[in-house]
Amino acid sequence: MTQSKRETERKYEPPSDGLAGLPDLTGVGPVASVTAAGPEELDAEYHDTVDLRLAGSSATLRRRTG
Predict the structure, then answer these.
(1) How far apart are CA 34 and CA 1, in angstroms?
(2) Partners of 44 in the beta sheet?
(3) How does pLDDT run across 7-37, given as a tens digit for each residue?
(4) pTM greater than 0.85
């Protein structure tokens, strides 16, 4: 039996005028400061149990580093 899973990941770009077009979130909830950051390259590792319980329950465990 073949199974397929779909993952939806979205990427959002800031307005063309950078942070000037975004609201100031400093002091809102846990936000301490807002700074511009460059692009990052991320590595992803996917993990499951030997008997594939996560896949069987339509769950994914991913660890991203970078």
Answers:
(1) 48
(2) 64
(3) 666 677 777 776 676 777 777 788 677 777 7
(4) no
